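User: Let's play a game. I give you a shape written as tokens, and you guess the letters that built it. Ready? Here's round one.
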């Protein structure tokens, strides 16, 4: 079977053009993924990298692949217009699906609970009645970096049990137990990791700790983020601003 090289070349040219247009559309998504939806360590620990691959598949791979398969310069303009309309609809549908899937996994809050930071997803918070005023008390977001305090009274303890039994929501995801991170110094002090113990487990961490600490003028507080896809050791300064982090693969 003889391959029509001229046809293949024109298919590749049309595909390359479609890839370029798809990348232009993808760039805003890339910015949102890295800086808004999954900022800092969350990109690697809690779904940002997985979301990036999904969005690439939906936007940059699917449409151009369909263009390569159906494009034929011998077709009439009407037929080509129909083909490209169907491709555009398929690509937009895939992009909408990908966006929905990514946003459903976006951490809305990151809760310091039982000595570990853990991401709290929209599904968990949707089960609770939360008003804009409730969110405002936690400060700037999203995501909101918060401390999960202990239940203070019988009503709160009953709420913890009820959400656990009926909604499968653990304490780390209960909004009524959240406090602004900067108002929870005692809890943060208790959650600080022992760098020496971590270095004993992985000697390569010593240079990474040192590289971050040398860029700062004062002592740092190191806390452990237990992510869904990877872990991270996060450095905070005295004002509890994030100043660095170290990625750790799940053990």
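Assistant: Ready! My guess for every position:
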């Amino acid at each position: 079977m003889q391959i029509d090289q001229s046809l293949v070349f024109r298919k590749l040219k049309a595909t390359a053009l479609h890839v370029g247009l798809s990348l232009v559309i993808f760039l805003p998504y890339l910015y949102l993924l890295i800086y808004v939806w999954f900022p800092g360590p969350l990109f690697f620990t809690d779904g940002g990298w997985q979301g990036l691959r999904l969005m690439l598949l939906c936007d940059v791979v699917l449409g151009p692949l369909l263009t390569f398969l159906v494009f034929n310069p011998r077709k009439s303009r009407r037929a080509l217009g129909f083909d490209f309309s169907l491709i555009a609809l398929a690509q937009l549908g895939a992009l909408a699906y990908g966006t929905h899937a990514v946003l459903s996994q976006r951490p809305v809050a990151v809760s310091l609970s039982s000595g570990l930071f853990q991401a709290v997803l929209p599904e968990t918070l949707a089960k609770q009645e939360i008003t804009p005023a409730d969110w405002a008390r936690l400060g700037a977001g999203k995501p909101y970096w918060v401390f999960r305090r202990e239940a203070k009274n019988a009503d709160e303890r009953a709420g913890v049990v009820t959400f656990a039994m009926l909604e499968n929501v653990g304490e780390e995801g209960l909004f009524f137990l959240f406090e602004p991170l900067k108002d929870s110094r005692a809890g943060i002090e208790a959650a600080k990791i022992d760098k020496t113990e971590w270095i004993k487990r992985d000697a390569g961490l010593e240079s990474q700790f040192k590289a971050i600490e040398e860029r700062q003028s004062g002592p740092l507080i190191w806390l452990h983020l237990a992510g869904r896809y990877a872990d991270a050791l996060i450095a905070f300064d005295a004002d509890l601003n994030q100043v660095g982090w170290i990625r750790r693969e799940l053990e």
